[in-house]
Amino acid sequence: xxxxxxxxxxxxxxxxxxxxxxxxxxxxxxxxxxxxxxxxxxxxxxxxxxxxxxxxxxxxxxxxxxxxxxxxxxxxxxxxxxxxxxxxxxxxxxxxxxxxxxxxxxxxxxxxxxxxxxxxxxxxxxxxxxxxxxxxxxxxxxxxxxxxxxxxxxxxxxxxxxxxxxxxxxxxxxxxxxxxxxxxxxxxxxxxxxxxxxxxxxxxxxxxxxxxxxxxxxxxxxxxxxxxxxxxxxxxxxxxxxxxxxxxxxxxxxxxxxxxxxxxxxxxxxxxxxxxxxxxxxxxxxxxxxxxxxxxxxxxxxxxxxxxxxxxxxxxxxxx
Length: 320
Known about the structure:
Rossmann fold, globular, 16% strand, 12 helices, alpha/beta, single chain
């Protein structure tokens, strides 16, 4: 990777990925892009430009002018937001990816890396240790686009020899960016409310199990996959997993450090989405092929989350 383009750089994962890429490859070699105004840290570690992935000509021009050889395509509409406007989710997620793959093919980009999601699995997939090769019958537009996106990535590799790579993320928990419309966003909100000494109302039931990953592990996973030797890869799309958690598990962990934290449960439409997803994921192929191994467990994550959120809150208070 010499010249890198990151789409959706202002999103939850994209914003932190840009920082890591900038530190590793140098600000001058990382082009970040989005249709949103970037945070200052994105400009600190990359060159930012406005880019709408639905505009093929704009995308192609930036790839050519910046001599891009690697694209991290992070732009997407997430599950909960997507259910509010499924047509828009389809347009952004499907046409955006198609544009990226076509530009990569035509302009001789070497590698395209994009995240998939556990949303590809539907209610008929095994709930525990869900394998990579199982039925993919999602119940959300987000899941539908991710299934189709995986197939597109595989097609462009087989048809054109494009080096495409993807991983199926579980729910991502991050201290750095606000939730972005995902069904697992309750986890991040719990930590934020706890630090602010506010009660929280969770939109899924306390005993709903879901797979999760802490953001540092999520960033490391996508970078390790991107840098893995291609001849060691047996797949184009990999499961990755770290923790199987319920909302009650997260609350219990928070209460070890903030005993007064209170949480109530009022399930809404996102409960049905959560129930359609796996409880845990079989990621043995990623562990075997490119050495994937998560580093954070629940309590490690909770300590780090609370420390970082307290620091951010104190800085805001001082600034005000």
